[in-house]
Amino acid sequence: MPALNEILAVIMGGGRGSRLYPLTKLRAKPAVPIAGKYRLIDTTLSNCINSGIYRIAVLTQFNSVSLHRHITRTFNFDTFHTGWVQILAAEQTPESADWYQGTADAVRKQLTEIQVTEAKHILVLAGDHLYRMDYKEMAEFHFKNDADITVAVQPVLREDAPRFGLLKREKDGRISDFTEKPKDQEIQKKFISRDDPERPFLGSMGIYLFKTQVLIDLLKGFPAYDDFGSDVIPHAIKTHQVYGCDFDGYWRDIGTIRAFYDTNLELTLSDALFNFYDLKGPIYTHARYLPGSTVEDSRLKDVLLAEGCRIRKAEIIHSVIGLRSRIASGVRIKDSIVMGADSYVTKGTSGIPVGIGENCDLEGVILDKNVRLGKGVVIKPFSRGTDLDTETFVVRDGIVIIPKNTHIPAETRITPEDI
């Protein structure tokens, strides 16, 4: 059976991430902070390392500076190890002056660099999913079936079928058909792949393992195919041996503000379906060597609290408090994500200290890094489905987001009644 060192992992890190705006206003989507101290891409990179796949290429393009900085500071192998994490940035070449047009096009434009590695198999991954997965099991399934392509698949609830691309898998594990977000129940019936009345369907997770030569042939032979999920895989099902490998663990696609918000707040609960404490599968991130957080005369319930914070006489419920957060006395925070700060600088040109000033009342809000709230600021959620853009804040699906480095003056009110 082939060895894991014959696999090159290729992580998609170049998307614009418009559905996560304004969190992606100044950074690439995989660089968006999550769970107080991590970045979205940390999960995928950690899964590779924990699975024994040590050759990793990250394809970047949009707002990539912070992502490059995070990867180069964090994921460095020692001199006695043969592994590496390499950044393949979008570039103009004699063959192409265009940016990446999609996931498949991104890999196509980097085929020369990929072929130099002489890897026999290419594992294509997304950089914006939260999950813990042993890719070794998928690789063994791929090798055992001598598959041209293996797709990681997850069970889909019957009521969720219209939101997913569904795959039809035969008894031998081979995928025979694909349909994109079917709303017709008669069409849905043709794609039942599991003997489970609640979750009878299989959906793609956007994780693909290719034989390298098969990948090259598909990308060069069909230059108009820009995306793996909607172009390459549906075509390959008709011409190649494509198999579906089961994964029934926790998996979240952090593709929208609502998904980002809900997933973060899920992590605050004691019975959260995903946690960062697994001894066999740790999630790695940048080591910052920050002091422990200090909490003075405060009430905290269901709070995920990162390092380096100072909280004074505050009430915090069902919220994430990120690195170096400063929360003054009399503050109330509920159902919110506070990303913290990049440094301990306390004053800015506005005169407002970094962090949350006295007597602020926050609910249903995301505060990006380095936000400064003056005293007495009130922010409340809007009704679900509400979208709004202003100079100082954004509302997506009812969630209020204060963009990175924003200053909000004292006594400002951002509520449905005041806007």
From TrEMBL:
PANTHER family the record matches: GLUCOSE-1-PHOSPHATE ADENYLYLTRANSFERASE LARGE SUBUNIT 1, CHLOROPLASTIC-RELATED (PTHR43523:SF12), GLUCOSE-1-PHOSPHATE ADENYLYLTRANSFERASE-RELATED (PTHR43523)
Domain Nucleotidyl transferase span(s) in chain numbering: 9-267
Pfam family, one: NTP_transferase
GO MF annotations, alphabetized: ATP binding; glucose-1-phosphate adenylyltransferase activity
The species this protein was found in: Candidatus Desulfolinea nitratireducens
A Gene Ontology BP annotation from the UniProt entry: glycogen biosynthetic process
DNA damage among keywords: no
Keywords in alphabetical order: ATP-binding, Carbohydrate metabolism, Glycogen metabolism, Nucleotide-binding, Nucleotidyltransferase, Transferase
Its EC number(s): 2.7.7.27
Record-given protein name: Glucose-1-phosphate adenylyltransferase
Family the entry assigns: Belongs to the bacterial/plant glucose-1-phosphate adenylyltransferase family.
